[in-house]
Amino acid sequence: MAPMAETNDADATAQRAAEREEVLTKARTAKAAAPVLATLPTPEKDALLRDAAEQLVSRGAEVLAANAEDIAAGRGAGMSESLIDRLSLDVKRIDAIADGLRQVAGLSDPVGVVVQGRTMSNGIRMRQVRVPLGVMGMVYEARPNVTVDAFGLALKSGNVAMLRGSKSARATNKKLVEILQDVVVKHGLPREIVQLLPCETHESVQDLITARGLVDVVIPRGSARLINAVVENATVPAIETGTGNCHFYVDAAADVDSAIAMLLNGKTRRVSVCNATETALIDSRLPAADQLRVITALQEAGVRVHGDVDKLSALGVRDVVAATEEDWADEYLSMDIAVDIVDGVGGAIAHIAKWSTGHTEAIASRDALTLQRFADEVDAAAVMLNASTAFTDGEQYGMGAEIGISTQKLHARGPMALPELTSTKWILEGAGHVRD
C-alpha cells in the first residue's frame, strides 16, 4: 500500500503547488491591471456598473442554475437551513444585487477628491488627494451577493478586486464573476480587474493574505473564526470587519416600553447580521417588575435567554439557559441572547469593556449625564443613544453601500463605504524650488 500512499501524497503536493501558483499569477495580473483602473474616469465607471446590473438581471437564469447546483451540494453535505438561506438566490435577490450596483453608480467618486490643501510659505502648493488602495483581496463566506457588492465598491473606488468566496458558493460565484468579467471586457478594460480565486482548500486564503507586494489590502467578512484566521495570519495589511457581540443596556432612567421596542428590534429584526443585539444588560436599580418585563418580552418574541439562572429566577424569569463564559463572548447570530443584571451604567460599561468586540453598543436612558458617560467611556465603532443596534449600517448612515463594518482603529472604523476604500497621497507643486 505504500506506493499508493506516496502517489496520493505526490498528487496532493502537486495540486497544492498549482493552487498557490494560480493565486500568485492572478495577483500579478491584478497588480498589472491596477493602474488602468486607478485612472478610469467616473462616467466610464458608472456606465460599466449600470451595464453590469443589466447583465446580471438578463442572465439571471444562468445565475439561478448555478445557485441551484450549490444549494443541492450544500443540502447533500448537511448544510443548515440558515446557511442555505444565506446562499440562496432568487429573482428578487438578483434584482436587489443589481440595484446595489446601480446605487454605487449613483454615489460620488472618492478618487481624486482633495482632502485638504494649502500654499506653503515658500510658495509651493500642496494638496492631499484620495487615491485607490490598489489590489483589494476579499475573503468571505456563503453570501453570493458579496461577490457583486465587493466588485461594485472596488470598481467605483478604483481598486482591483480579488475575491475568495467559500467552496459552498463555488458555482454561483464562478457564474457571477464570469458575467462581470464579460461586462468589463465589453467596456475595453482588462478582465483581471475582477478575479475569483480557487476555494478548494483553506490554503488559498493563506496564499492571498501573504502575497505582500502584490496585494495591497485584504478584508475578511464572515464569522469570527474566519476574521480571526485572516487577521492573525496575514502579512498583507488587513482590515478587521464584522464580528458583533453588540450590547443593549437598559438604564434605571429608561422609558421601559421604548427600551423593549429597541431591544427587540436589535435582536429579532435579522438575527444573522453583525449589528444584531447579542447581550442585554439591565440596571439593577430598575424596578424588579420592569426587569422582568424586559426579559419576558424577549422570551415572548421567541428569544432564548442565557444568563445566571439563580439571579434571573429570583426575578421570576423561567426557562433560563445557564450561561457559560462563552455566552458573554458569543455572537449568537440566532434567536438567543445573553442577559445580565448590572450595577448601573458603570457596571454596564465594565461588562462591555470585558466582552465587547468593538462593533456597536447601545443604551436606553432619559438621563443626559448617563447618556454622556456611556458615549464617552464605551469603546466601540458605533455607540447608540436611545436607538437600536440595527442602525450600524452604511446605507442607514447615508453612505450608500458598504464593504463591511470595521471594528479596528487604524485606517477606517465603522461602516466602510467608498471613501474608506481609498488612501491618500500628497501632491506638491513648486516652480523650481530647492530646499536650503
TrEMBL record:
The gene is proA. It holds the Pfam family Aldedh. Belongs to the gamma-glutamyl phosphate reductase family. The keyword Amino-acid biosynthesis applies. Its EC number is 1.2.1.41. This is Gamma-glutamyl phosphate reductase. InterPro entries: Ald_DH/histidinol_DH (IPR016161), Ald_DH_C (IPR016163), Ald_DH_N (IPR016162), Aldehyde_DH_dom (IPR015590), G-glutamylP_reductase_CS (IPR020593), Glu-5-SA_DH (IPR012134), GPR_dom (IPR000965). It catalyses: L-glutamate 5-semialdehyde + phosphate + NADP(+) = L-glutamyl 5-phosphate + NADPH + H(+). It is an enzyme of class 1 (oxidoreductase). Keywords: Amino-acid biosynthesis, Cytoplasm, NADP, Oxidoreductase, Proline biosynthesis. Catalyzes the NADPH-dependent reduction of L-glutamate 5-phosphate into L-glutamate 5-semialdehyde and phosphate. The product spontaneously undergoes cyclization to form 1-pyrroline-5-carboxylate.
